[in-house]
Amino acid sequence: MKKAFLLTMAVVAGAVFMPLTHADGAGKPPTQEIYYQVMVRSFYDSNGDGIGDLRGLQSKLDYIQDLGVTALWIMPVFASPAYFNYYADDFYKVDPTLGTLEDFRSLCKDVHKRGMKILLDMETQYITKRHEWFVDAEKNQQSRYGDWIAWVDREENIPQAAFGGFTENYSYDGVRTGIMSLNLNNPAVLEYQKKLYAYWLDPDRDGNLSDGVDGYRMDHLMDDLENAGFATNLLSGFWAPIVKYTKKVNPNVFYVVEPNNWGVRWDTTLYATGMDSAFNMMLRGAIANMAKDSIIDNGITSIQAAGKGKYSFTIIENHDNNRFASEAPSNPDALKLGALLNIALPGVPCLYYGQELGAKGEFIKGMDDGNDIPRREAFRWYKDWTKKGMAVWYKMPGREFWEDSAVKQNDGTTLEEQKNDPSSLYAFYKKMIALRKKTPSLMDGTASVIKTDDEWVLAFARKRDIPCAVIANLSDQEKTVTIDLASAGLKKGQHADLLTEKRIEVADASRFSVKLKPYGAVIIE
Predict the structure, then answer these.
(1) CA dist., res. 67 & res. 61, Å (int)
(2) Which of 159, 307, 373, 441 could form an S-S bond across to 180 if both were Cys, CB 3.0 to 4.6 Å?
(3) 0.85 exceeded by pTM
(4) Cα gap 76→86, rounded to integer Å
């Protein structure tokens, strides 16, 4: 049996906490942020190799900030054989195809100079067979890393599988790499990871947080890893101590959780861990299906019932889901209605890169990680995807994800085509983001349901200071409804539709009638 030794990690520790220098905007309520998820590899190529990189992302911060975004969530950047960088060879090294540690720190500094925040995506439950821990444990029966890895057999020859029961990552380019789960019940692994999470908040450990991240997006969080019984009680026994430890480095560190089970209420993992926010996956599906009752249940009722300081993270697409434009009704106004609900419902809104342009992409069946490439394609900067800067790293003739790519010439889903078009989806996203940021009730007001008799018309109130009412037609048919605006706190008299900036006369607040075009909406203040 291999022996485990308690970790004394002077080289990676950062165990001495320095006086803190916070980034601008530290401590701002999460509901006042607009997040933007970026897959660095697919965003912008700065050096002409066809691969998006950290310098490319930094060069496009003007675009992101002009959109109205206040915070970034970047997918993992660790050295890894996987294009999505989740299975790490080393948690302290940046994938050289994406850049260097200095590039990463420079990006963080620039983000903070702009008063923005940045989250780093973390999946530290698994490693590859190329990681030094496995390499050492495999060749040395007395390796201290033996008990850092979870094993199937007593002889410690077969590592426990990683996410989804996989023992290998089958790459789209034919490379296979062994992957495994860690023994998260080992105190030495916990001590290592506490210091790892502290490190990326302050990479040079000088107390100045400007060159580190402001928090983490936590991948695939569960109490019993892989529901296999080898690493249990993880929410309170493993993840909660990490949260507590990192708050010593940055009291405002912000954690966003992806619950392992997408079918449970969004906040279930937050209480035992002390984490702050979680994906509202059932709300995402409800919006894609324009399902009124489910939007109410998951987008309003569950948020009303959540504990103080726990925030719904509102997405309509991300790297693990089909693009909203591929799932929503085939109607340009339906995409705008999705944008409105993404941003106007309570919680912390997040966009996935290219969502603001109506990018398309769906999962394809296959035996390797090319399955998800259609949902992770290059950001559409130009009509001509061969132009410099386009991060078309997955060019592989003959493969379905390439031959049937959603990145098409002159298809209307590019920034070049939409940027100067006031009727474009891009322009609508900019309008909705600006509207949320300047309307306190939309930003962090309470939410309550306004009853309607039509199963396809959703109405809800947002209240803080000046109340407002959101009324949305979830169908492809014109609708006229009469609702009680008085229940939203609105009174008889002159009001404004915040979407059109037109004046609305409310003669009787208790019986207000409005006509809505298919997938149309009004926001009355």
Answers:
(1) 10
(2) 159
(3) yes
(4) 6
